[in-house]
Amino acid sequence: MMKSVTHSSLSMPVAAAAAAAVVQAPARPDGRFAHELRPMACELGLLNRADGSCRFSHGDSTVLASVFGPLQPKRQRKQLIDRASLEVSFRPRTGIPGQLEREREAAIQGALSSVILASLHPRTCITVVLQVVHEDGSITAAAMNAAFLALLDAGVPLQGMLSCVTAGLLLPNPSSESAGGKAGGKAGGKSGKSADSEMPCPVVTLDPIGEEEKASVSIVTVAVPSGACAKALDGSKHKGGIALCDCVGRSLDENTFNEATAAAKGAATKVVQFMKMAV
Fold first, then answer.
1. Is 262 helix (H, G, I), strand (E, B) or coil?
2. What is the mean pLDDT of residues 49-55?
3. Which terminal Cβ of the chain has fewer Cβ within 10 Å, N or C?
């Protein structure tokens, strides 16, 4: 049975522990504040031939996830005697998968493996297929959230919730070197040292759109398991672990990195609340 849920509010404040890490950002193209997430929407049970499915949207970024299994693996070499194996396939909106999709597959697979009770289904395989429907920033977070809800829809045994949020680090001057452009190539170059020393303190912006990702010096994607989210909900200092922390772009100093992850962890609690409404 298909179920559809939408959260239409743009104002989704982060937890108190992370609020101090989010400061006023440059004017955002869509009018949001630095700490606001885009509207979220999801539909469960869309695909009849899949064991579980979910279409999840962060604003205009939409991913369709389908889950097959636990099933007998088609290849014996992929069979694990003590637990179920997990396969993740990430498909772009157009064209064939490339190196970027392979990296996203590995990141999502590692995070999902931390919440799946794989030991309950030894010698089987669980396959997650992620199809990008529309991309406008924070696509890895949208894919992770879609995959988790699809697993939930398929009845795969899980040990808790998992939510994901992306944070972009924007400089006051949007024309500065960006993660979406030259950041990766110049991170270790000759000009990297002088550029880093002169770089002003970047501003953390949650759930960046595509335009903001291109202007960001670094992009941090954080997936938080339910135990960690529960600690952040009451406003206490976040001490729990994370299932994924993927950083693209310039290397960050410890304080800036901690600010970005704290902001993403706090916002992840709002994603969990939305997921609970969806199921």
1. helix
2. 95
3. N
